[in-house]
Write a structure and sequence with these properties.
476 residues; five-stranded mixed barrel; 25 helices; 5 strands; 7% strand; globular
Length: 476
């Protein structure tokens, strides 16, 4: 029987039956049984106790054992179970004392958080831990919680206050980058008015007067501005003006990126670019540093920005000729390796144009396919998920009606990568062998550079790669 209990205490599918068996025992037998369970799964033992009538004696004993296990950071598996047991007993002050001494979190402690969320992936345990981290004001552990928790967050009356406290704490400490991560990872932009109990424009105004890490604050402010399409409520030049007050490479890159997307020309940006493209340099180290900076700026929209400025265009041409600079050779083309998709670039419309949300989702998709110079297809998908709350599955079903053409770019045993024609995607389309040929096709060989017709049948949620099919059943 002992061996049977050991095996079941380690297998989640038996947890409910163990708890039921515990409840069926008489009071004098429960203590011995739960002690046995605690030897192999302290968290399960805590669940047995807390789902039964109050028993102070055994509860105190198991809390002591859970504390002993939790503070042994060198054993992540048992430490995680110890912390979960303490959370089950609502011993949050005790948890905070154990974590308060953690000045510089270790790899083992990161593993502990992963183990905690593997054992209990509910948002309740996530918010319980966040509350503890806020209590001890340990930003590093808060970041660990956020990066290791991969569940969903549904905003409700219980956790709204915790979220608001969390964001205000992050704002006060200049942690705008991790704030942006939370909003994007858990798809909370649509909930910010509820979380902050303020309108998006009010939140933007708070960010615009940030005293610390201004660039990160501006990036988050512009993200909110862009997602909520606040072109009529706020002049986007305010972002450029504040960035121009901060003299750094990062502020210039961010300013150029925003100015390009908003079709704004800034005298201060023009001066910075002109100084950078000055060809009169002799020190090779300085030249190399300048060329790296120019490459960074090009990746953030420099060429688009200077395209309407004849003087800057001429300077850039002289710069390339003088230093034998060839950006195209440095540029990493999108292809087989999935590129990092910037979720802020979700709109198929220019950032300074109001998004026509009065149209139906079908009309917006139709508008997209009628565009002569289509933005990235991923932009369309992200815009539809944000403004229409559409799922990837629903979007892929709507996209199936459009027949596309393309060229086989690469062939592997597991499938084909396809470059689309007259449509831009950050990642190549993927064609699975099962979707490449009808049953009975005599010629079932596709070669590189072969032209094919196809339709989109699915969207990979992780990397926004589009799965396609050549089968007739998807052509109606």
């Amino acid at each position: 029987m002992m061996l049977d209990l050991i095996n079941k205490a380690k297998n989640e599918k038996y947890y409910q039956s163990i708890r039921f068996f515990y409840h069926s025992l008489s009071m004098d037998k429960r203590h011995d049984f739960v002690r046995l369970v605690a030897e192999y799964n302290i968290y399960l033992a805590a669940q047995c106790i807390m789902t039964s009538q109050k028993d102070s004696i055994i509860e105190s004993e198991i809390i002591g054992k859970a504390e002993y296990l939790a503070k042994d950071f060198n054993n992540p598996e048992s430490s995680a179970k110890g912390f979960l047991a303490l959370a089950e007993f609502e011993q949050f002050i005790l948890i905070s004392k154990l974590l308060k001494n953690v000045q510089k979190p270790t790899k083992q402690q990161l593993i502990i958080f992963k183990k905690i969320f593997e054992s209990n992936g509910s948002q309740d345990i996530f918010f319980q831990l966040i509350e503890v981290m806020l209590l001890i004001e340990n930003i590093q552990l808060i970041i660990y919680c956020i990066t290791t928790y991969n569940g969903t967050i549904i905003v409700n009356t219980e956790n709204q206050k915790i979220l608001k406290t969390l964001f205000l704490f992050l704002f006060d400490n200049g942690n705008y980058g991790i704030s942006k991560v939370i909003l994007e990872k858990f798809e909370l932009y649509n909930e910010i008015a509820i979380i902050f109990e303020k309108q998006p424009t009010e939140i933007i105004n708070i960010l615009l007067v940030a005293k610390r890490k201004k660039i990160q604050a501006i990036k988050l402010a512009y993200e909110i501005y862009n997602r909520f399409n606040l072109v009529k409520s706020l002049n986007a030049e305010i972002f450029i003006d504040i960035l121009n007050e901060t003299s750094s490479d990062k502020s210039l890159m961010t300013a150029i990126n925003i100015a390009t997307r908003q079709h704004i020309e800034s005298k201060r940006i023009n001066e910075e670019i002109s100084n950078l493209l000055n060809p009169f340099r002799n020190n090779q180290k300085v030249i190399n540093r300048v060329m790296r900076k120019v490459t960074q700026l090009i990746n953030n929209g420099l060429l688009d920005y200077i395209s309407k400025n004849e003087s800057l265009n001429e300077q850039f041409s002289r710069f390339k000729e003088t230093f034998n600079y060839d950006f195209e050779k440095k540029k990493n083309l999108h292809g087989l390796i999935t590129s990092v998709f910037i979720k802020s670039e979700y709109s198929i419309f220019e950032d300074n144009v109001e998004i026509p949300t009065h149209k139906s989702i079908e009309e917006v998709i139709e508008d997209y396919f009628n565009m002569k110079d289509k933005p990235y297809l991923e932009n369309l998908v992200n815009m539809l998920t944000f403004h229409f709350n559409a799922s990837y599955r629903d979007i892929s079903h709507l996209l199936r009606k459009y027949e596309l053409c393309g060229t086989i770019n690469a062939i592997f045993d597991y499938g084909y990568y396809v470059t689309g024609e007259n449509i831009k995607t950050r990642n190549l389309f993927f064609l699975h062998p099962a979707q490449a040929f009808e049953i009975g096709d005599e010629n079932n060989n596709l070669e590189e550079n072969s032209k094919i017709n196809f339709r989109i049948i699915g969207i990979n949620r992780t990397n926004l790669r589009f799965n396609i099919s050549r089968l007739k059943e998807f052509q109606n």
